[in-house]
Amino acid sequence: MIFALLLSCAPEEAAPPTIKPTPVVDELEIPDISGIDMEAAFVDALTLALTVNARTPFNSLNNSFDRFQTGCPDVYAGIPPQEQAEVDVGMDAGGLTWTDHCENPDGGTFSGYGWWDGDVLVTGDPTSAEGITIEASREMNADGVVGDPNGVFFEFKGDASDSLYTVQADGYDRWIYSSLVVGTATGSDPFPAGSLAPAGWRTDLYLFMTGGDEDSLEARGNVYLFTGRMAERFDSLALDINVIGELGAGPDDCTQEPLGWIGLRDENAVWYDLIFLPRSENDITGIPYPNDPLSECDGCGTLYIRGVESGEFCPDFSFLFDGSLQAPPVDEFVSSLRDLP
Amino acid sequence: MSHGAISHRAGRITHGGGLGIDIGVTLEENLHRGTHALGEKILLVLGMALLGCDGATETGTPTPDLPTDTAETDVPWVDTGVFRPDNTGTVALGNDVPANTVILEQSGVWMLSGNPYDALIGSFQARELINGNDPGTGDTAQQLDCNVSYSLQGTPAPPPTGCPSCGHVWDIQFTVDADSITDTSLCNDPDLPQDGDTWRMGYAGAAGTIHFNFYGSGVWVPWWGAAQSGDTVIFEWTRELAIDIPAPEEDQ
Predict the structure, then answer these.
(1) Long-range contacts for B20-26 (Cβ within 8 Å, ≥24 apart)?
(2) Distance between CA atoms of residues A46 and B195, nearest Å
(3) Strand, helix or coil at A158?
């Protein structure tokens, strides 16, 4: 295109333009972290990650029901017409959808839509050898805002789903909770004052955790904070970890540190990656694992800043399995038309 | 990246793309890079145009059509992936009105016997009226797709801890009548009992409700408004919802 322009309309005496090359940085600048408690920052990051799950949008959806009034918003059985709301689920999906652009007499405002569906199934007897099994799941697709006179009460765009599985019998207890949120959430209800994410987050985080007779946690994905900073510096986290607790660990499992890595990003878009033991053979097949040969089951990871090795750090993640990691109560999965006013 | 073994772009550790989407952390970086690249392109094109076309105008040479740059680019010219929440309180609210509505009607009766009560029989009917049509007033063949009648049989259940106000509690089996006009598949209520289901329910006289142990979860949900007179409990519930009725496909 440039040559075409030159050939077609530039006078012969025109001098070729001077193109100034983009300056090349001779040496990577590594940020100073001497004033940062990096270990606490990674603990804060994992603490935050555990709160980024489907419970947040579902709890706020349920709290939004108090603001519903007849006709504002409209509540559809199943999916509304496409011209009303482009709900991104199958046409035969059941569930319910709120959709409207309205303000009701109490000042509740609704703009957009929110579809949700869920199931609870309980089988068995807790006094039997097989015990009682609870299976619950729910999903949401939304692009809507619920407001009140104080502003945005709850806003969510994207998809959220989670599931709960518990088995309880005499002397036996096992629970599994998994969650996937690909979306954006904000509002005063999900993120009240003092929240770890004061203005909400954008995420694609997957969580899988078990408790009872086996403690474990998997977390994979990204979280971006609109405001608020981890360790007053980091606005994003990315992670791909497996953590194995003492309960249920095999003889070769490392319970001292996670498997995988956790990354934090500062406001200058510099990533700080703490690399632990590889999660599996796949991590070290083909491409050398970053902190090899430093990998040891010692509770410490190797920090890389902009890819440059920057020391070892040993965050204390023992809080994960001291009882603070809990399955949500099945109550949260109970939802019916009767909840609507 | 030559320093260290981690590549945020092409290596094993990739931020922002773990589940197949880009979130802002990488988009912002991409946009940052894209802005530089875009700026350079614009400057180049503007520079060329200024250098070349000023002279052309002076000499009267016809200005050719500008060529179109069809080369593929990976620059995210328009950021369509980032959703930043906005306070939409200023958005004009028009109060959408649904084109169609459905009224869910449920009613029934429990007849109790024994002293204390040790048996329950009864009936239950669920029907759904599209756009308020009453089956007794006109052509309702297309307007009353859900009209299910059940027979109920209950056995006493132990008092629940989750429903202290429940007076008498029952395990109630729902059996769709053989002469029911429709089955449950045509109904829109997501929580309609299916043929053969057994639900644990309790009558709370003070509250005037029948509670449902929600699918055995231990969470007791007020389910039907109810009133007891003698050994008979009558209950009912109504809800209106919007509904999408797809237009029938025209024959080709």
Answers:
(1) B20/A204, B21/A182, B21/A204, B21/B81, B22/B81, B23/A202, B23/A203, B23/A204, B23/A222, B23/A224, B23/B81, B23/B82, B24/A202, B24/A224, B24/A236, B24/B82, B25/A222, B25/A224, B25/A235, B25/A236, B25/A238, B25/A265, B25/A269
(2) 47
(3) strand
Residues of B in contact with A340 (CB under 8 A): 239
- The pLDDT of A290-297, averaged and rounded, is 65
Say if residue A82's pLDDT is above 80: yes
Tokens found for residue B194:
């299916």
A44, B91 in Cβ contact below 8 A? no
* Yes or no, beta carbons of A200 and B3 under 8 Å apart: no
**Most confidently modeled of A121-130, B184-193, B232-241?**
B232-241
Average pLDDT, chain A: 88
Considering CB atoms only, which of B92, B97, B217 is closest to A330? B217
Torsion angles phi and psi, residue A251, rounded to 5: -65, -25
Instruction: Find out whether B225 and A142 touch, Cβ atoms under 8 Å.
Output: no
Please give the residue of chain A at the shortest CA–CA distance from B66.
Answer: A5
DSSP A273: E
ipTM of the complex in this document: 0.81
Nearest to A138 by CA among A174, A179, A166, A176: A179
C-beta atoms of A123 and B216 within 8 A: yes
Asked if the Cβ–Cβ distance from A14 to B83 is below 8 Å, we say no
In DSSP terms, which residues pair with A29 in a beta bridge? Answer: none
- pLDDT number for residue A240: 94
> Would you report the helix, strand and coil content of chain B in percent, each value rounded to 5?
20, 30, 50
pLDDT one-digit tens code per residue, A228-284: 889 889 999 999 999 999 998 888 888 888 999 999 999 889 999 999 988 876 676
Give the model's pLDDT for residue B109: 98
Q: Indicate the pLDDT class of residue B164, thresholds 50, 70 and 90.
A: confident
The maximal CA–CA distance of chain A, rounded, in angstroms, is: 96
The alpha-carbon gap from B184 to the nearest alpha carbon of chain A, in Å, equals 14
Going from N- to C-terminal start, the domains of chain B cover: 7-50, 101-242
Residue carrying structure tokens 């053989």: B178
